[in-house]
# Entry
Amino acid sequence: MQAVELRGVTKGFGHREVLAGVDLEIKQGARVGIIGPAASGKSVLLKLICGLERPDEGAVIVEGHDITSWSEARMLPLRARIGMLFQNYALFDFMTIGENVAFPLSRRGGISPSEIDQRVADRLRAVGLAGTETKLPSELSGGMKKRAGIARATVARPDIVIYDEPTAGLDPVTTSKIYDLLAADQKETGGTVIAVSSDVAALAAFVDEIAFLYKGKIHYRGPASSLADAPDPIVRQFVRGDVEGPLE
Amino acid sequence: MSRGRISGRVLEGIESIGGAALAIAREAGGMVLLLGKVIRALFPPSMDARELVRNLHKMGNRSVPIVVLTAFFAGALMVLQSAPFVQRLGATGLAGWAAGYAVLREIGPILIALMFSGRVGANNTAELGTMTVTEQLDGLRALSIDPIKYLVVPRVIAMMVMLVALTAIGDLVALLGASLIAKIVLGIEYSTMYHSFADNLSPHDFLQGIYKSLVFGGAIAVSSCYFGVSVKGGAVGVGRAVNAAVVAAAVSIMLLDFFLTYMNI
# Structure
């Protein structure tokens, strides 16, 4: 069964068409990375999968449910099974870091406060933020906020985890640690991972497959391990960072 | 000037008036839709109690000093304005009635609502606007939380409740201010002022102001929340939204006051 399926999805804002017919299938338990030039619609694609945006045309199917025309109220239970890390962290600035990470658990109910505290402490320790429970997001650096966002997105062990730039602003060592953690999480839960990152090399080491979003469509999809030698010259130029080439 | 040029300018004028009317209709429609969502979210009533208490404290308790200050001088001003007539006619027994009637029915609710809009409404728009541009609202939705239920409904209720409470406090302080200034400037005894209030003012005068403040609170809440959650364009957008929210609230207060007063007659 497919965890996520997009069929001919288009999405525009004003006169600008961001996605021009995206077709994408992601199997349950797969780890898929999405790359592409800046402003190519990667974040919009993730928000469509999470039901935070609606497509202008096409269909978005998540875990077998066609959510394209679902109301906000109908979407809420499905979103409880999806964890999302936002590009700008989206930490609630009126809550402490501990409250932010505990939020998905406390809202869900059925978990004792002591267990929530334990899981929050474990998750924060795992992302290297032990002891920051009482701090406010404004007291943390960008990289620390990113890690707190990861902790919040994964604390409830969702079936599908969506990471928008999970390692932006992190140093190479922390980046490796974070990807190791995400890989271990995925192995443990067997969930589906969809990640967008500008750090192509680190992303390719983490995911099984890479999809290249270009000019509003999935231009290329292939194994992450052979991305640098992809048959498509545009993908090769993007991955290698060559100035000259067919990439517009 | 040629006829074609004049007709071109007329068309431009009509176009800009039409554009402005459409923009106003769009914003007003957006506010009505938000109000509908808020009302729908109240059935069945479920909201985050912690968020409600946090907003009640932030919006109400912290507004008391500025409301007390404003109301005191509003009451005092009413007495100062009526002082020449009271002295000329020797109608000291009506000084309290004049000040009280104006304060309870009009000046109190309007002035306090405008202060509340400037302090609480603007702050609310800025807060929600910042949350919108930093994807915190999307963050809530991604965590299966309805932002209307979680953020907007407690704010609307808190603003309505607290504006009523602040108006009641403001009314009392305004009457005290009027009494104090009447004693200092006109030499009118406190007992005379008290009897002037008690004999000439009815509970209806007080309640009319309270009803108004309830409606004003709703208008400030809906406009400030609407402009906050519909922000576009980063920090500049937040600034524009705050400006629009304060203007919309002030216009709404004046319009609603007119119609509420008219209907009461």
Observations:
- The interface with chain B takes residues 47, 50, 52, 72-73, 75-77, 79-80, 82, 84, 86-94, 103-104, 107 of chain A (CB under 8 Å).
- Strands of chain A lie at 2-13, 16-27, 31-35, 57-62, 65-66, 82-85, 160-164, 192-196, 209-214, 217-223.
